[in-house]
Amino acid sequence: MTKPITILVVEDEMIIGAKISLLLTKLGYEVTGIVPKGEEAILYIQQNAPDIVLLDIHLRGQMDGIDTAREILKEGHKTVLIYLTANTDEETFNRAKQTRPFAFLSKPIQPQELQRTIELTVERILVQREVNLQEDKPLPQETNEELMLLQDRIFVSSKNKLVKIFINDILYLVAERSYCQIFTKDQQFILSVPLKSVEHKLQTAQFLRVHRSYLVNIKAIDEISQNYVFINKKAIPMVETAKEELFKRLNKV
Fold first, then answer.
1. What is the pLDDT of residues 26-63, one digit of tens each?
2. Closest residue by Cα to residue 53 from 102, 115, 97
3. Radius of gyration of the chain (CA)
4. Where is the HTH LytTR-type domain (predicted)?
5. Which of 108, 134, 160 is the last residue of a domain?
6. Within a domain: 199
7. Which of 37, 60, 87, 157 could form a disulfide with 143 if both were Cys (CB 3.0 to 4.6 A apart)?
8. Per-residue pLDDT tens for 157-210?
């Protein structure tokens, strides 16, 4: 049975915290707690180990959100951090960035933005769980080899055999530590090679690294918004530099 994804909200404005909790609950997620202080959040995480922490960056008290995040990381917790913030100056942003958050959500929280961010975060967690399961199993010899590339297709190792994937059928790839995952319309494959290696193999204008964790097939993009591209109804985060490169390539088509 799959363990449900659990979420902790750390917000000193309890009305805002309750509103976020209600939105998440309506979306079908399990919010296990709302706490107003960093010290309480650290104690809660020690006892309950939530998968995701929505953390107000400007917590009042002795510890702000960034101090809290640093302590969480120092203690080695595996929870995924998402910052909540109304206004963040450059200095604060740079401090926050050092704690390696998965995302920043701007206040007031927009339901659609919250939904997309949590969906992406949950996908990352589920991929990591699958990778952990794979790590616990002895890998067949061929999975330690690089994937094979032949003009319009690649061959990847899956269940002790090589499987052909046409390059045009690849929608996007997701990085996870030393592994990566390939998504097509109907299938997904976990590879025991880093995304960088696959990106090097797929040296073509057809693929673009839109985020440190995502390599997308430009031909598969259905929609483009301010901070996301959409492929097969999946919202994929996109950094500003990648957006500029994407439009350059699209203008050449």
1. 988 999 999 999 999 999 999 999 999 999 999 988 89
2. 102
3. 20
4. 154-224
5. 134
6. yes
7. 157
8. 766 678 888 999 999 999 877 788 899 998 888 887 888 888 887 777 789 999
Written as six digits, the tokens of 170 are 């690849």
DSSP state of 120: H
Say how far apart CA 167 and CA 198 lie, in whole Å: 12
36: cis peptide before it, omega within 30°?
no
Residue 201 belongs to what domain range?
141-252
**pTM, to two decimals:** 0.56
Does residue 69 lie within any of the structural domains?
A: yes
Question: How many Å apart are CA 130 and CA 123, to the nearest integer?
Answer: 11
> Reading across the β-sheet that carries 161-166, which strands appear in turn?
148-150, 153-158, 161-166
96 and 199 together in one domain = no
Tokens of 161: 């055999």
Domain shared by 70 and 89, yes or no = yes
3-state SS, residue 32 = strand
Last residue of some domain: 97, 118, 134? 134
Please state the domain count of the chain. Answer: 2
SS3 percent helix, strand, coil of the chain, rounded to 5, is: 40, 30, 30
Greatest pairwise CA separation for the chain in angstroms: 59
CA distance 105 to 113: 8
- Treating both helix axes as pointing N-terminal to C-terminal, what angle do 65-74 and 38-48 enclose, rounded to 10 degrees? 30
Looking up residue 190, the CATH number of its domain turns out to be 2.40.50.1020
